[in-house]
Design a protein that fits this description.
The protein is an alpha+beta fold and 427 residues long. The protein has 2 domains: 214 residues, no CATH class; 127 residues, no CATH class. The chain contains 14 helices and 10 strands. InterPro entries: AKG_HExxH.
Length: 427
C-alpha cells in the first residue's frame, strides 16, 4: 500500500474538488435516484467512500507532527503486502472515519484537546494482527484499554505504555467485537470512535457496552430483520449486507429508531426494536448513506441550510438538503412496503399508502425548487418516475386516497402553525 497522494484539507472532511474525478453517468444516476439497488450504484457508493477515506488519512498524515505517524503507516504498508483485504477493512471501518475527522479538527484547532494520534498506531496494530505479520511497537492505552478497530479491546494488566507484538491478541485479556449473524456486519459497542465525541453536536447517543444478554437480544432482532428483508426484498437485503459494516446500539434515551453519520460511512446507529421495525430502519438508513456518498461527488442543489420546508415525516421545518434526504429514504420505504404487502405482510399496504402519499406530497416542491442544479433536477425527476411507477401495483380499495386525504389535513395544520412557510409547503 502506498500513501494516498491527494491534497489534504485544512480541517474536517476532504474538499469536494478532491473527489471530482468520479464520473456518474445518467444510467447510474437514475438507478440511484430510484433507490432500487443496482451493482453499478453499489459500486459507486463503495468507491466514493474508499476514496474519501484515503483522502482523510492523507490529511492526517500531512498534518501530524513528528515521525511516529510515518512509522505506523509503514507498518500498515507491511501488513498490506501480506493481506490487502485486512488492511482495507481496518482503514475503511466506519469508526476510522470518525477518528480521522476528529483528529483533523484537533490538529488544526488552536485550542482544545490534543489529537489522538496514537489511534493511528492502533489501526496499524489491528491491521498487522489480522494480516499475521511479525511486528513490535508501543502504544499507550486510554482508560485501561486499547481499542483495536475491527477486533475489539485489548485490556492490559498494568497501566502505562504497552509493548505489542504479533502475539498480543492471543496472549492478553481481550474483549472481542461481537459479530452479528449472517454476514460481515459487527455489532460495535466497544470502539471509542463509534459515534462523534460528546463535545460535537449529534442527534444520537451510543449505548454503553452491552452484556451478553444484550448481544443475544440484538442477534435475535438482527436475524429477524434480515429474514424479513430477504423474504420481501432480496435486493435490498443484499444491498444492506454490502454497504453496512457495523451496527452501533443507541442509548435508551435516543428518540430516533436509527441514524447514519457521514463520517462513519458504512455504520448504522440504531436502538433496539422489533425485527419488522429494524428491517424498515435498515432500508431507510441505507438510503441516507447512498445519497451522502453521491453528494460527495455531485452537486444536486445550491440552497443554504435555512429550515423552511414541510416534511410530512417531521414536525419541524427542514432545509432543502434535509427534505431531499428524507424524501429519498421514504421513497425506498414506500417501495419496500409495497413488496412486503404483495407478499402478504400484515399492515404493509397501509404503510405503503401512507409513505407513498408523503413522498408524492413533497416531490412537486422538490421538482420546482429553483436552487436545484441540472444534475439535481435530473435526479429528482428520476425519483418522481420511480414514485409514479408504483401505480402499476396499487393498494386494494381506497387506501391510497385515504392516506392522501389524511396527509392533506396534516399539511393544512402545519401551514396554520407556520403561516410564514405555507408557500414552501406547496399550499
Amino acid at each position: 500500500m502506498t500513501r494516498p497522494t491527494a491534497p489534504a484539507p485544512g480541517s474536517g472532511a476532504p474538499p469536494p474538488a478532491a473527489l471530482a474525478r468520479f464520473a456518474v453517468g445518467a444510467p447510474v444516476l437514475e438507478a440511484l435516484a430510484s433507490t432500487e439497488p443496482s451493482p453499478e450504484g453499489t459500486r459507486l457508493v463503495g468507491d466514493v467512500r474508499r476514496s474519501k477515506r484515503l483522502l482523510l488519512l492523507r490529511a492526517v498524515l500531512d498534518a501530524a507532527p513528528g515521525p511516529q505517524a510515518g512509522e505506523w503507516w509503514g507498518l500498515l504498508e507491511d501488513a498490506e503486502r501480506q493481506d490487502p483485504h485486512a488492511v482495507r477493512d481496518v482503514l475503511h471501518y466506519p469508526s476510522t472515519g470518525v477518528w480521522a475527522e476528529e483528529t483533523l479538527r484537533r490538529l488544526h484547532a488552536p485550542h482544545g484537546p490534543a489529537p489522538d494520534l496514537g489511534h493511528l498506531g492502533a489501526l496499524a496494530v489491528a491491521a498487522a494482527l489480522r494480516a499475521g505479520i511479525g511486528f513490535k511497537t508501543t502504544l499507550r492505552p486510554a482508560h485501561g484499554r486499547l481499542a483495536l478497530p475491527t477486533l475489539g479491546l485489548l485490556l492490559p494488566d498494568r497501566p502505562g505504555p504497552l509493548a505489542l507484538t504479533e502475539r498480543s491478541w492471543d496472549t492478553s485479556d481481550v474483549l472481542p467485537l461481537h459479530p452479528l449473524p449472517g454476514g460481515r456486519t459487527s455489532l460495535d459497542d466497544l470502539d471509542p470512535y463509534r459515534a462523534p465525541a460528546p463535545g460535537h453536536p449529534a442527534p444520537v447517543r451510543p449505548a454503553r457496552r452491552l452484556t451478553p444478554k444484550g448481544h443475544r437480544r440484538w442477534d435475535t432482532q438482527w436475524t429477524g430483520a434480515l429474514t424479513l428483508l430477504e423474504r420481501y426484498d432480496a435486493a435490498r437485503a443484499d444491498e444492506a449486507g454490502r454497504l453496512l459494516r457495523s451496527l452501533v446500539p443507541l442509548g435508551g434515551g435516543s428518540r430516533s429508531n436509527g441514524a447514519t453519520l457521514p463520517a462513519a460511512a458504512g455504520s448504522l446507529l440504531a436502538r433496539g426494536q422489533s425485527p419488522p421495525a429494524l428491517a424498515a430502519t435498515l432500508v431507510h438508513e441505507v438510503q441516507h448513506g447512498k445519497l451522502a456518498a453521491l453528494t460527495d461527488v455531485l452537486t444536486l442543489h445550491t440552497a443554504d441550510r435555512t429550515p423552511c420546508h414541510w416534511a410530512p415525516w417531521r414536525t419541524d421545518p427542514r432545509p432543502l438538503e434535509g427534505l431531499l434526504h428524507g424524501t429519498y429514504a421514504h421513497l425506498a420505504l414506500a417501495g419496500y412496503w409495497q413488496r412486503a404487502a404483495l407478499y402478504g405482510a400484515r399492515g404493509a399496504w397501509a404503510r405503503h399508502a401512507r409513505t407513498r402519499a408523503q413522498v408524492a406530497a413533497v416531490l412537486p416542491v422538490l421538482r420546482g425548487h429553483p436552487r436545484l442544479t441540472a444534475t439535481g433536477r435530473q435526479f429528482v425527476e428520476a425519483m418522481a418516475g420511480a414514485e409514479r411507477a408504483m401505480d402499476a401495483l396499487p393498494p386494494p380499495g381506497d387506501q391510497h386516497a385515504t392516506a392522501r386525504r389524511a396527509l392533506e389535513r396534516e399539511r393544512r395544520a402545519w401551514c396554520a402553525a407556520h403561516p410564514e412557510l405555507a408557500e414552501s409547503a406547496g399550499a
